[in-house]
Design goal:
The protein has about 70 residues and is an all-alpha fold. The chain contains 1 helix and no strands. The termini are far apart.
């Protein structure tokens, strides 16, 4: 019985450590996702502002500008 109790205590300790490690990983990932979401929001806002200001005209390759 004592051997079984010790084995269960060891398993619980191992699982507890694993849960704590995974919790740390999830917390770091949450911080990274929040940071990246902020960057994406900023870039999306810049794109909307640029589109509203410039009309979104893009000259590609050897295409003539509209004033020719």
């Amino acid at each position: 019985m004592a051997c079984m109790t010790q084995a269960l205590e060891e398993q619980i300790a191992h699982l507890t450590r694993t849960v704590e490690e995974l919790s740390d990983v999830v917390a770091k990932q949450d911080a990274e996702v929040r940071r990246l979401t902020g960057i994406v929001d900023l870039l999306a806002q810049r794109a909307r502002d640029r589109e509203a200001d410039g009309g979104g005209g893009v000259i590609l390759g050897d295409e003539r500008p509209p004033h020719y």
